[in-house]
């Protein structure tokens, strides 16, 4: 559509690539020894920087040689260890993954000790006591540094601080074990050819076999087609149960983690872990989370009851059993049947219009036009290849200046022992040095889309296209930041706001204005037909109440685990009770969803943020809907007011500035298909 995209598309299709040897991305370690050496070198440099900072005499302390110097150290350290630690999630060599995890454990312990160093704390407080005249990002950096020390327990007695160190190191150890047990889980289900009757043959052809039985793993490209399309009720149940029974050994690990987090909060003077975690988020504590759910749940339940009645009617109609009840493993299957019956939308037909490369190129074209940037495909040097042949690599160029502003990897297809979901990693933070040179940000996007076969490209479901846009939204947040300090670069915002930019970007896979750019039939190239899109949009709110009640269940489970005062919880029983309260399904015995709920390490006490930030995402989206989903004016405004700022201002202030008013919940509620009157605020 625009000439400026032509070079990139040519580069993608003809192999015209540039070596990344001279770029910002750290080299991919080629052996466990090289990974360890890279990590050790970065840590040694960090230790030397800290010693230099603490050696400065008190009367010579300045912002530059103390506060900014600490941020400089963190920026270099993050750049040095980002790639070595990332290898635990994506590398195929188990020795590489093990060394990477060991490095992460060592780094986690080092970070705990760093936060308790008396000499570094004394250096920071000595400068703070000079009542420095700081503004903007610099004032915020000092404020946050002092806050971090308070939250690290520097005001505690030596005895309590020693216990806190022990507790925090154990939390780090168990968090790594929890994640590792999820990644290492090898749950599979063996099924006969007869059990797969009704499934597409091309999907079956992609499965591995063992003695005449097909092997079904727990990755999304395998289980979602079964749960959505298999007419075999017993098979759907078998797959659903297997998914909810993964990593059972994590149950006691999680419960020990929860108890330790409660003790950490107690030592630091908080009611419970949720209050501690959420003090530095938009909600400021668990009470606001509870109030949010109290407002939201009645609205969702009204819609969910209608959703449930629709699916139950579909099941009873198909089975001829007027006493049949809807089970959790029926949800996706009957939602798809209703979508086909009532809206004439077949998700398998829709998939044919979303070959991955077309979606990728369309996404690139859209974002280039909106944000005034270009992408150029790169290649790794021959002596330092990337971690897998599927990985693509790009640099981002600012069109106004011609300068490279960042780089990113894309690892899009599933493989054994790779991270099994979709996520974005910030491998290198942006940093403006005192010389005014800039450390460019580097991101990695990891997804698990269907792998292409020799006779068919990777075809994405519309949901998967939405996931791609979501994760790329995180990537843009990392890459387009204008923050000067690593502390506030990119996605370093409040955890309950971080999903808003990525959730907002999902809207582009629904817009008639942009769908022709990212869809094209894999055989004919024809874009998604307008009438099919109209029917998809009409079905957009199908089961929205039940879907978001599922999110409430996960969020409230997380809160229940982390609001117990002593942390002595039975996570399985809590899950059972809340499943019955928050959804319209009965709990299923002998399941333990929490054992593979990866967000419980990293998002603890904060899973509510997915719905909380979705409210903001739908509100922020309104400017694009008014000015046009391809409006460069709207894109530039959003880049300046949100993406560029990173964490340099509070999210609440950022939203007020971007929206020109307080945020409202109504756009989100209406997006669920629920009519609601406007009000003045959330």
Describe the structure.
The protein is α+β, with helices and mostly antiparallel strands and 682 residues long. It folds into four domains: 32-153, Glutathione S-transferase Yfyf (Class Pi), Chain A, domain 2; 186-244, no CATH class; 250-345 and 544-607, Neurolysin, domain 3 (Orthogonal Bundle), CATH 1.10.1370; 356-538 and 610-671, Neurolysin, domain 3, CATH 1.10.1370.40. It contains 26 helices and eleven strands. It has helices spanning 6-14, 32-54, 63-90, 94-114, 118-128, 136-151, 158-184, 201-205, 220-229, 233-244, 250-267, 273-278, 286-319, 331-343, 347-351, 356-371, 462-479, 500-505, 515-518, 530-538, 544-563, 571-582, 609-627, 632-643, 651-659, 666-671; strands at 18-19, 189-191, 208-210, 213-216, 373-379, 392-398, 404-411, 423-428, 431-432, 438-439, 442-446. The strands form three sheets. It has a six-stranded mixed sheet. A three-stranded antiparallel sheet has the order 2-4-3, with helices on one face. The longest helix is centred in the middle third of the chain and has 34 residues, at 286-319. The protein is globular. The model is unreliable at 1-22 (pLDDT under 50).
């Amino acid at each position: 559509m625009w000439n400026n995209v032509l070079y990139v598309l040519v580069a993608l299709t003809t192999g015209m690539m540039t070596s990344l040897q001279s770029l910002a991305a750290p080299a991919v370690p080629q052996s466990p020894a090289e990974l360890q050496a890279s990590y050790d070198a970065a840590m040694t440099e960090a230790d030397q920087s800290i010693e230099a900072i603490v050696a400065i005499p008190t009367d010579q302390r300045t912002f530059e040689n103390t506060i900014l110097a600490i941020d400089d150290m963190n920026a270099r350290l993050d750049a040095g260890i980002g790639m070595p630690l990332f290898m635990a999630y994506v590398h195929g060599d188990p020795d590489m993954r093990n060394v990477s995890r060991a490095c992460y454990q060592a780094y986690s312990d080092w970070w705990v000790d760093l936060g308790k160093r008396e000499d570094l704390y004394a250096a920071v407080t000595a400068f703070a006591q000079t009542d420095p005249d700081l503004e903007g990002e610099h004032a915020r950096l000092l404020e946050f540094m002092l806050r971090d020390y308070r939250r690290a327990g520097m005001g505690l007695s030596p005895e309590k601080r020693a216990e806190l160190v022990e507790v925090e190191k154990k939390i780090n150890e168990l968090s790594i074990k929890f994640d590792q047990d999820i990644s290492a889980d090898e749950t599979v289900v063996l099924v006969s050819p007869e059990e797969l009757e009704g499934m597409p043959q091309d999907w079956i052809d992609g499965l591995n076999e063992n003695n005449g039985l097909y092997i079904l793993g727990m990755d999304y490209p395998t289980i979602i087609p079964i749960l959505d399309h298999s007419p075999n009720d017993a098979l759907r149940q078998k797959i659903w149960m297997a998914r909810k029974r993964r990593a059972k050994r994590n149950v006691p690990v999680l419960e020990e983690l929860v108890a330790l987090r409660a003790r950490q909060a107690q030592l630091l003077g908080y009611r419970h872990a949720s209050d501690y975690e959420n003090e530095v988020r938009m909600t400021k504590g668990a009470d606001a989370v509870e109030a949010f759910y109290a407002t939201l749940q009645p609205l969702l339940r009204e819609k969910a009851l209608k959703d449930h009645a629709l699916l139950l009617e579909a099941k009873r109609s198909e089975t001829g059993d007027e006493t049949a009840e809807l089970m959790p493993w029926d949800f996706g299957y009957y939602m798809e049947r209703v979508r086909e019956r009532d809206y004439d939308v077949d998700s398998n037909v829709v998939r044919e219009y979303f070959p991955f490369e077309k979606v990728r190129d369309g996404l690139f074209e859209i974002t280039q036009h909106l944000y005034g940037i270009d992408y150029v495909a790169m290649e790794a040097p021959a002596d330092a290849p990337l971690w897998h042949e599927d990985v693509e690599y790009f640099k981002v160029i600012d069109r106004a200046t011609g300068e490279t502003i960042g780089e990113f990897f894309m690892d899009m297809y599933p493989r054994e022992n790779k991270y099994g979901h979709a996520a974005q990693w910030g491998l290198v933070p942006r940093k403006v040095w005192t010389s005014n040179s800039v450390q460019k940000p580097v991101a990695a996007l990891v997804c698990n889309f269907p792998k292409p076969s020799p006779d068919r490209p990777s075809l994405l479901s519309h949901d998967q296209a939405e996931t791609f846009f979501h994760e790329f939204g995180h990537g843009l947040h990392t890459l387009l930041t204008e923050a000067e300090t690593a502390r506030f670069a990119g996605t370093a915002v409040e955890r309950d706001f971080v999903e808003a930019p990525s959730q907002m970007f999902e809207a582009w896979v629904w817009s008639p204005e942009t769908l022709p750019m990212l869809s094209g039939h894999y055989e004919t190239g024809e874009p998604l037909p307008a009438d099919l899109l109209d029917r998809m949009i009409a079905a957009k709110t199908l089961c929205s109440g039940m879907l978001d009640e599922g999110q409430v269940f996960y969020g409230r489970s997380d809160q229940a685990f982390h609001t117990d005062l002593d942390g002595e919880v039975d996570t399985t029983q809590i899950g059972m009770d809340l499943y019955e309260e928050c959804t319209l399904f009965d709990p299923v015995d002998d399941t333990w969803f929490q054992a593979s709920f990866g967000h419980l390490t990293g998002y603890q006490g904060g899973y509510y943020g997915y719905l909380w930030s979705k409210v903001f995402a739908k509100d922020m989206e309104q400017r694009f809907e008014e000015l046009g989903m391809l409006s460069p004016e709207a894109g530039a405004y959003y880049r300046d007011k949100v993406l560029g700022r990173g964490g340099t201002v509070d999210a609440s202030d950022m939203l007020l500035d971007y929206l020109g008013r307080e945020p409202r919940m109504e756009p989100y509620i209406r997006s669920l298909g629920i009519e609601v009157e406007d009000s003045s605020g959330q």
